Amino acid sequence: MTTITEVTTDMSTFETLESEVRSYCRSFPTIFDKARGYKLWDVQGREFIDFFAGAGALNYGHNNPRIKRKLIDYLTDDHVVHSLDMATVAKENFLKKFQDVILAPREMEYKVMFPGPTGANSVESALKLARKVTGRQTVVSFTKGFHGMTLGALSVTGNSFKRHGAGVPLHHAVSMPYDNYHEDVDSLSLLEHYLDDEGSGLDMPAAIILETLQGEGGINVASNHWLQRVEAICRQRDILLIVDDVQVGCGRTGPFFSFEEAGIQPDIICLSKSIGGYGLPFALTLIKPKLDQWAPGEHNGTFRGHNLAFVASTEALSYWETDELTCETLRKGEIIQRSLSSMTAKHPDTEPEVRGRGLMQGIAFGRKGFAEKVCAIAFERGLIMETSGSDSEVIKVMPPLIIDDEGLNKGLAILDESIQIAKETR
Amino acid sequence: MTTITEVTTDMSTFETLESEVRSYCRSFPTIFDKARGYKLWDVQGREFIDFFAGAGALNYGHNNPRIKRKLIDYLTDDHVVHSLDMATVAKENFLKKFQDVILAPREMEYKVMFPGPTGANSVESALKLARKVTGRQTVVSFTKGFHGMTLGALSVTGNSFKRHGAGVPLHHAVSMPYDNYHEDVDSLSLLEHYLDDEGSGLDMPAAIILETLQGEGGINVASNHWLQRVEAICRQRDILLIVDDVQVGCGRTGPFFSFEEAGIQPDIICLSKSIGGYGLPFALTLIKPKLDQWAPGEHNGTFRGHNLAFVASTEALSYWETDELTCETLRKGEIIQRSLSSMTAKHPDTEPEVRGRGLMQGIAFGRKGFAEKVCAIAFERGLIMETSGSDSEVIKVMPPLIIDDEGLNKGLAILDESIQIAKETR
Amino acid sequence: MTTITEVTTDMSTFETLESEVRSYCRSFPTIFDKARGYKLWDVQGREFIDFFAGAGALNYGHNNPRIKRKLIDYLTDDHVVHSLDMATVAKENFLKKFQDVILAPREMEYKVMFPGPTGANSVESALKLARKVTGRQTVVSFTKGFHGMTLGALSVTGNSFKRHGAGVPLHHAVSMPYDNYHEDVDSLSLLEHYLDDEGSGLDMPAAIILETLQGEGGINVASNHWLQRVEAICRQRDILLIVDDVQVGCGRTGPFFSFEEAGIQPDIICLSKSIGGYGLPFALTLIKPKLDQWAPGEHNGTFRGHNLAFVASTEALSYWETDELTCETLRKGEIIQRSLSSMTAKHPDTEPEVRGRGLMQGIAFGRKGFAEKVCAIAFERGLIMETSGSDSEVIKVMPPLIIDDEGLNKGLAILDESIQIAKETR
Amino acid sequence: MTTITEVTTDMSTFETLESEVRSYCRSFPTIFDKARGYKLWDVQGREFIDFFAGAGALNYGHNNPRIKRKLIDYLTDDHVVHSLDMATVAKENFLKKFQDVILAPREMEYKVMFPGPTGANSVESALKLARKVTGRQTVVSFTKGFHGMTLGALSVTGNSFKRHGAGVPLHHAVSMPYDNYHEDVDSLSLLEHYLDDEGSGLDMPAAIILETLQGEGGINVASNHWLQRVEAICRQRDILLIVDDVQVGCGRTGPFFSFEEAGIQPDIICLSKSIGGYGLPFALTLIKPKLDQWAPGEHNGTFRGHNLAFVASTEALSYWETDELTCETLRKGEIIQRSLSSMTAKHPDTEPEVRGRGLMQGIAFGRKGFAEKVCAIAFERGLIMETSGSDSEVIKVMPPLIIDDEGLNKGLAILDESIQIAKETR
């Protein structure tokens, strides 16, 4: 692959007509046209390897051919596409397959709610339900957590730039230290102290909401032990545990749910992004049956049911009929880890730290602005990769799960090269 | 069409696996399979006329063949489907066509924001921006208003059942009387009194948010004069005017924007539902250029860009290249109005009141529970129609705009019959 | 009395050492030294008639000799002065006398709470209790209402300047129109509409809080009929009725409680100001026994019990052993009303409106800035009188109840003269 | 002193007429009549030593004869008692003496605000001003902090029982760990981490509010180093530092301000309780001149000015013309510390911990319920002493500063005896 800096694309339509709020089109300044698997092509035919995967929405790759076939057939035969939350064949198929392939084999008993098609919808519904069921209002979230942009989801999100965007103070949430947030603080010992001290100023929470691996927050991994302790803390005090598996679920770290290895049983689980299978807007909220205390229509929305997503998602669930995808993800995760370790070993002066699990890994660079530079150089060389962390200090390696070894190695090679160049061109 | 009560459908999958929050599948208890134009068919092959239109998301009908063709082609050729807010050919085409067909001919200058794929996302983004730009926090909404289920959107929604679902008190919003809310109150004279009185307890608002016709609230129509007065109130006091055209825009009342006849120029416009063309999740926030003060990424989301929706929406915009759809909608609106008036004239004891404009009309019944009964009977006879209003006291006639006269008259005949039967079977 | 403008007082200590927040010392720029009854003297020996009465805290006049004797005796004999809420002889005497002289004869059953020594403390305690007892959070207050400066009390206060001082948005309160707030609005018909409409956006309130006569808000009088309707609205919906009688209670309008004539029975009554008898900080919250659901110490404070105030208040209650004070107040109120009416008749160009009842009356002037000018001129001529209303558009005639006819007429003559001069010196 | 359990007092007036919220009269179930210095007498003539001192309001003892003389003279001569915030001779004298005796010798430049007569008023005014000046809304408070019962003050108070009493969620405040809150957590390192991490979820605060020694929270002492670090954290980030010296100021720990030894200069200082000199309701807010950005009357109240308190406070300030009181307090503090240490050494099984400084010391008992038992026994033996801490686990030794050695030793002997008895009578 040659560098592609010499060709530029006319972005003026976007600059003229679209709001200033647009963001990724600034980091990846070209116009994309086609995509398949782990590859994207822009209007000039330039090919890009995708280590971004729609921020986690494309675990099965772009335009997955198995799913695509189903979508075209569904459209062709005029099956119902939009139906709010009426019953449809597509929805029934999805519910059954999700039960059969995901929940039943894991002995997980959950009712399925369709809260609207985004992760934020799922989080909003989870918070509402937790507050309704417990009659309490406070929710404990964690530092660096990211749960969405609507007012309820934003209140449990740590990022100050996003929070400030609310334009109003954010309430009913308390941000406690995440695992390893501060080297000298045992975060859960502190949390327990707060919960059990009648003088701490922390009102008894309805729920604790967490990501098991914080993607947007900078690829921070919670240990299994930490997750188990959080669950125990919740159980002992009748606090609900909400796991936001929007980005890190659907196999991103190996198993379908990110928390399977920890062996915990959240009360409410938020899913979106890759649950849509094909990058279609879709979200689920999984609810332990005894907590399913909603009145009909108490939370609603026009796109609760979206049959193309049902069709795509149902087909994508076929990947989970065996453990092959999980095994492959773990295997590729190891490749990435070795590769990143070897890259960082060469550049200790960038103060690098390899982080993550499975196919969500990355490097945090202590050197300010370095991560963004690496990503910009990588893009010029045909690799799409984003930063995360509140100072954009982490590069994120997050390819579609279905990437082959050739693509993976090629992408990693570009990354290696890009770090080298970034260092040279201070 | 014969009555179809004798056949029942097995709804057990939904009853067993889906959350209690499900709602429309309770009102329309069958499993739908196929749909085209203004018709739906269930798994038993029963045909239904659709006077519901996806709660306003299906103005161009189910599975509109022109749009369907474009979607299948797009999928077939592996154009990029999911791309967050990166630039794509599909997005560029949409932006240009929206500019050329909608904004430019109306001499409307607005920047286009993709806030996430739901109406609530658009409302949340509008509220955030209004607060950011003005530095104020209060937003004035109106009685019976409906703007969405996320915490910010819910705070400007009037319905107490939905509000209660929040589980936390809702802040930063004040609900003032809508046009004709109370016969003895000039709602805007009162609003002005509050705004101009330093002792009223109403903090100077960032914005006023309204629907020009409240669909969920019971088909309450604001007069053009009232809308013009609201705009003047805003202008005189530097308050932003947000029009939520999610349900009533995209031609529902005739013109593309519901407020065109009133001649007002909102500062921010929320669009969703039918803007997606094919019932695909999609939303826009239109912002006057000087107010487009977002920082890049200050509001974001995984499904901001959704290329199938761009493709469908772009094709749907072709309907707006001439004024044919507007004229037809007004003509059919008159048919409906005549028909509803004649129906209600026959049943004064149900205390009926015909309401609405264009293809969002309905009958409010004073008799408690009557509207729900009519809809249930209509469903049994092959007509899908929902109620609205906080006591479900209004039946809503809201077919796809592309319905033909045969379908329209057939549906109205079933409605007429259903009212008769409802009266007889107290 | 001659004008006293030629003498000025050195206010530099206050200007140098005291915060900019000071206010009355700006309107009445002299240093006061002595006071008795309805008269004050400054350090230069200038005498002032007091039509201000400590903003309602001095109903029994300055340094009332009967009360003074008791205070000096109490101090001399080393009875306990500060005792938090421990039991003391002084407190027991107060409780018994308040029961015997005030509650029992009126057949009012209330428990007495000492919430801290200010009206705002009483209002805060009333709001807390109403929320606790009902489990609801919203409180309905009224336009132009004034209830205090602490965050809870401020949230039910209408004045935007004071509200803005909070520095945070004020929550859990909704401001509805007061009696005669807007000529075309039947305020209670609108309130009922909001309360009974599930789509109004008004959450079912814990309580309605009101003043029967709004002193700070501009001397706005609620009719007896209006108060009775509010009570009925509350009773029908299980909403608590809180009457803030801090300024207008203790006989200011004739009867001890301002609402006696209306015949209503509030659930909670807030008293402060003149209940202290001698201008000492003191407040009560009266609670219907079944609502007295406080846990011990759930609301507390260092100055809940303040024995000098118990002593002063107990002695002041002797005034209420007969109906003489009530009769005299009504008689003097008529003198004031006639006098104000005759003054205003002479100056229709100032757009005057006589308002009020008993010994809280005033004139609202349509002419901007006129009221403040009148008060400034009156001060120069030996009369202390403040303005009220959110634009300071109302002059307030509010002498101690014990003023004699000579003082009253003298003060009114100065007022008459001051209006005349104010008109002449535009 | 003999035990006094055999005599009981008739508390029925209080039980019948006063609200259930009453508290201290339950712990000290007798009716007090007279008081002088560190002694109280009840109606039966029983004498009590006061180790409670009006919860810190009686540093100069009950009915201090020097102050009493001034009060009687002031009353006798009819000097003005109630004057809102008008200028009076008494107020001028206070302002000058406070400047001369307290501020000037310490080279402290502060404007004096009279925010209303309670500590909560002072805290409310401090929070308002900090928010106004910075334009931010969040305030950082600390675990176990106690700042008052009004809604603003309560939001920065840790005690969950008191917080719950609000009946509404408390906003705009974040409770961080106080010094030594958790043995494994360096509280300020964590706070800094939160403040400097854009992803922590802690919005940049307007102010940090703290007590240097938490009385109500259980006698928790912040080290000078910790206080200096807090000040540095504030200075580096332009956060205001508010010290609530309501209970622990006015010499309670030796110097007039509790933070003098730490050498910090708070931006705003809250004073109440003993600043009133004689147990009269009174409070000050001290404001650095550049922060005195109040508009006139932006915060007001009827009892801002209370001339008896000015008179008493002015006389009490004479104690501060020399350093005698400070020296004596430190000396007596050492006596207490030695005494408590020796008591606790005898009873290791009660898991005792001596805490505090100067004349605010105490013993925390690990054994549940033990502290309350000790206080109850002590009361029966003629010693008034309260518990603190959220589980009432700490006994508080807090006599008037003017106690003599005889009284101090006598009280400590009763305490010693009471611990012994409490242990024996499990």
Task: Name a few traits of the molecule.
homotetramer; 426 residues; alpha/beta; 4-stranded mixed beta sheet; 14 helices; globular; disordered N terminus
Task: Please outline what is shown here.
The structure is a homotetramer. In chain A, about 35% of the residues lie in helices and about 15% in strands. Chain A is an alpha/beta fold.
Task: Please characterize this protein's 3D structure.
Chains A, B, C, D: Keywords: Aminotransferase, Pyridoxal phosphate, Transferase. Chains A, B, C, D: InterPro entries: Aminotrans_3, Aminotrans_3_PPA_site, Dat, Ectoine_EctB, PyrdxlP-dep_Trfase, PyrdxlP-dep_Trfase_major, PyrdxlP-dep_Trfase_small. Four copies of one chain form a homotetramer. With 426 residues, chain A is α/β, with parallel strands linked by helices. The first copy, chain A, has a domain of 241 residues: 3-Layer(aba) Sandwich (Aspartate Aminotransferase, domain 2). In chain A, 36% of the residues lie in helices and 16% in strands. Chain A has 14 helices and 18 strands. In chain A, the strands form four sheets. A seven-stranded mixed sheet of chain A has the order 5-13-12-11-8-6-7. In chain A, strands 1-2-3-16 form a four-stranded mixed sheet. In chain A, a hairpin with a 2-residue loop joins strand 1 and strand 2. In chain A, helix 5 runs parallel beside helix 11 and helix 13 crosses helix 14. Chain A is globular. Chains in contact: A-B, A-D, B-C, C-D. Strand 4 of chain A pairs parallel with strand 1 of chain B, so a sheet runs across the interface.
